[in-house]
Amino acid sequence: MFKKILIANRGEIALRVIRAAREMGIGSVAVHSTADADAMHVRMADEAICIGPPPSTQSYLSVAAIISAAEITGAEAIHPGYGFLSENANFVQALQDHGITFIGPTAEHIRVMGDKITAKDTMKKLGVPCVPGSEGGVPDLETALKVGKDIGYPVIIKATAGGGGKGMKLANSEAEMENAFRTARSEGKSNFGNDEVYIEKYLERPRHIEIQVFGDGKGGAVHLGERDCSLQRRHQKVFEEAPGPAIDEKTRAKIGKVCADAIATINYAGAGTVEFLYEDGEFYFIEMNTRLQVEHPVTEAIFGVDLVQEQINVAAGLPMSIKQDDLKINGHAIEVRINAEKVPQFTPCPGKITQYHAPGGLGVRMDSALYDGYSIPPYYDSLIAKLIVHGPDRPAALARLKRALGELIVDGIDTTTPLFHALLEEDAVLTGDYNIHWLEKWLEANT
Ligand code: ADP
Known about the structure:
Layout: E1 4-7, H1 11-23, E2 27-33, H2 40-44, E3 47-52, H3 63-73, E4 77-79, H4 89-97, E5 101-102, H5 107-114, H6 116-125, H7 141-151, E6 155-163, E7 166-171, H8 174-192, E8 197-201, E9 207-216, E10 221-233, E11 236-242, H9 249-265, E12 269-279, E13 282-289, H10 296-303, H11 307-315, E14 332-339, E15 341-342, E16 347-348, E17 351-352, E18 355-357, E19 364-368, E20 375-376, E21 383-391, H12 394-407, E22 409-411, H13 417-423, H14 427-431, H15 438-446
Parallel strand pairs: 1-2, 1-4, 2-3, 4-5
Antiparallel strand pairs: 6-7, 6-8, 9-10, 9-12, 10-11, 11-14, 12-13, 14-21, 15-16, 17-20, 18-22, 19-21
Helix pairs in contact: 4-5, 7-8
Bound molecules: adenosine-5'-diphosphate.
């Protein structure tokens, strides 16, 4: 087992990894920009090292700075968290060249799944059902119009390198195709340096259902059921739950096996998430994330598994401790993402926290890097806390969420907490009867 690992990230996810490592008796190294010198992950890690100025391109995204930090501190492995370098195949390759272990899959698997066209093609060949659409990339408007005619409007044009909801454009009719096609391409180019796009049928009322998978890199793999992440704003998740209110045991076992078998076939190592849209009882693959997801704690809650410790074990060459037959769902879990943003416009509002009180009690987990007097820097993602609740069933989890939200105090800045108080009054949320478009429509009607 490793003696020391470096965490190439910040905020709550850096704490999450430090905690997992500490329980395993593994030392932790935090890296930070000058803007994060007082951040919680720096305080909590065994060692910390500054890797550059505030902009993430010069710090958290600097491969050279991070490799130097690992070499100086003698860290044998690097956990990337999510975001930043977590799905960067060149980073993984560079680590390999320097004899440092990446806690995650191979560079090759990251490369294949990081390009959505290749990912779809690979998954299709492995027997995973996909959204109807273009065969591979769509090079020009003429081809786009032909695809639109063939599959029928509405369609969605997606940048193959896209992520975080960027580089996706809807075309409701032929008349809207030209604009949508050009915008998706230019967003792909400007955000991800790649203007290749493909086209999919736009589903009108699907749920977002994702399957958590885990592979040992040697042909062994399990699935840990699904998460329903349908409550989204601008294609970004805000509220996630497990198990999914619309998924029964048989459906779960079937799609879970398809996904576990697919990643076993390619000898995938570590945690992964196979994302689907789910409509009228059918699953349609949209993408695979080759890392730990923000919403992984809901899965941990219902299965009683520490996914980060599993990642570390597999990266160290040990077998997985989880077996499919032992994985039984216990109760229901919900996560809400609390951002430093002012509702209803969702404008970021970094600043100083004058008072912070985290909720607690049975079945409540608060993953956050906040503390009294902390100043949230303006340079990074606005996620400041994840509140995760676990109860014996969905109504109990909802009641616990309401109770826990009532205990939370974050003074000095605005947060998205009022959104969740409001959502917990809505029938659709209470009954679980929603799809990926529900929240956008609700926000339009209520703000
Ligand atoms: P990203 O990598 O940017 O997260 P995804 O492909 O995972 O992009 O899609 C994110 C979200 O966009 C989905 O959860 C869903 O809400 C919406 N979406 C993606 N593809 C479609 C589609 N074919 N029809 C309708 N909505 C879609």
